[in-house]
Structure formats: C-alpha cells, structure tokens
C-alpha cells in the first residue's frame, strides 16, 4: 500500500512543490496539505496519515508542540520534521517530542523520499548535517561531561559511531560486513544498555560522554 503523507507548511509554493514531487512515486500518496498546526492536527484526526511532513516553524502552533500532541493522540503517525533550521536545541526538542526524523529543506529529492520511506518503516531518519550539529552541540564548551565507562562493547560502539554519521541500518551492514538483521540486533541491545529510546538519543549520549 502507498505511504499516506500529510504536508504541513505555511508556504503554499513549497507544499505544491513537495506534493508534485512525491505524487510521482508509486508507493506514496499525498492525502492532504495544511498551512498551520491546528489545521494539521484536525486533518490528522480525520485522515490518519502514515507520515506527516511537518515544518518546525508554523504561524499558530510551534511544530514541536504539534509533534508532541500528535504522538500523544496518534503514536502510530510518523512525524518527519522538515525545516530550514538545524539549530541543535530545536532538533533536541523535536526528537524529545517524538519526531522520527529531521531533515532540512535543502535536502535532495531522493534523500527526502528515502527519509519518508525510513520513518514509514518505523526507522529514524536524520539529515547527516543535523546529526553533525547535535554532536558539535554536545561537545561544545560548557557542556558537562558525564562520568562512567561506556556500557557498550566494541561492535556496538562502532555501530553507534556510524549512526552518529547519519548511516542507515542497511548502510551500516554494508560497512561492517554484517546482515541488516544483525545490525538491528546490536543496535537494539545498545539502546537498551544506554537507557535511550532511539538512535538519535544514542548518538547524543555517546558523543556527550566521549565514547565516539
């Protein structure tokens, strides 16, 4: 079945451009467009999309708050934040609100489509530039370094290091000459040991502690 997508952005030309591009994909269907947060929440309740492309800055309700409300009401809906901003604090807020991905608006078409497919499968999709901003933020002066050795083994640390560079599970599998299933298993165990919910948090925690 096609991935049902709702586009949320206050710029009509951008919405139209995204709709035109995504509608050409055989496995994607744009089921609606919204210009603001309240409209987006109402449309999600009616349409139940699989993926919401959500601008972080909206004229009525902040995109992060829209994401938080969506995840409370409809956790099955995957939110992919799409914005011109790559501010580390904004990205952290989006991740903590439940966003499954974060890409900036200069992303190439193929990369955006791949990110949509990733979050639709339940994976996390982060623009490598965004991940880089996060890691730099976590390593910046004034950030308190947590004590303690890494709870991960060498293989798990290698995977988290590649996660922090923006690689998908499939790409990590190719890099490490492992099966994708094995990578998923290592990653799941790494998240459990670190006490985090997703790969983005794992990359941030590992960076903050100097493990990668």
Automatic annotation (TrEMBL):
Q: Name one GO molecular function term.
A: DNA binding
Which residue numbers delimit the HTH luxR-type domain?
A: 145-210
Q: What protein name applies here?
A: Stage 0 sporulation protein A homolog
Q: Which organism is it from?
A: Symbiobacterium terraclitae
Domain Response regulatory stretches: 4-120
Q: Does the keyword Endoplasmic reticulum apply?
A: no
Record's SMART domains? HTH_LUXR (SM00421), REC (SM00448)
Q: Does the keyword Transcription regulation apply?
A: yes
Quote the InterPro entries the UniProt record gives. CheY-like_superfamily (IPR011006), NreC/VraR/RcsB-like_REC (IPR058245), Sig_transdc_resp-reg_C-effctor (IPR016032), Sig_transdc_resp-reg_receiver (IPR001789), Tscrpt_reg_LuxR_C (IPR000792), WalR-like (IPR039420)
Domain of life, per UniProt, equals Bacteria
Q: Which Pfam families match?
A: GerE, Response_reg
């Amino acid at each position: 079945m096609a991935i049902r997508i709702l586009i949320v952005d206050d710029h009509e030309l951008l919405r139209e451009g995204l709709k035109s591009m995504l509608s050409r994909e055989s496995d994607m269907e744009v089921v609606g467009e919204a210009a603001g947060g309240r409209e987006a929440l109402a449309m999600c309740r009616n349409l139940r999309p699989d993926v919401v492309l959500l601008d972080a800055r909206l004229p009525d309700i902040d995109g992060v708050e829209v994401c938080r409300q969506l995840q409370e009401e409809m956790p099955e809906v995957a939110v992919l934040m799409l914005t011109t901003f790559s501010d580390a604090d904004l990205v952290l807020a989006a991740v903590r609100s439940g966003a499954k991905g974060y890409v900036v608006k200069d992303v190439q078409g193929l990369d955006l489509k791949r990110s949509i497919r990733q979050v639709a499968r339940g994976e996390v999709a982060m623009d490598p530039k965004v991940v880089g901003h996060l890691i730099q933020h976590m390593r910046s002066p004034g950030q308190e370094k947590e004590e303690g050795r890494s709870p991960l083994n060498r293989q798990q640390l290698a995977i988290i290091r590649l996660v922090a560079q923006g690689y998908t599970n499939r790409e990590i599998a190719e890099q490490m000459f492992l099966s994708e299933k094995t990578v998923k298993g290592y990653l799941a165990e790494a998240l459990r040991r670190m006490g985090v919910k997703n790969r983005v948090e794992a990359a941030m925690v590992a960076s903050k502690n100097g493990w990668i």
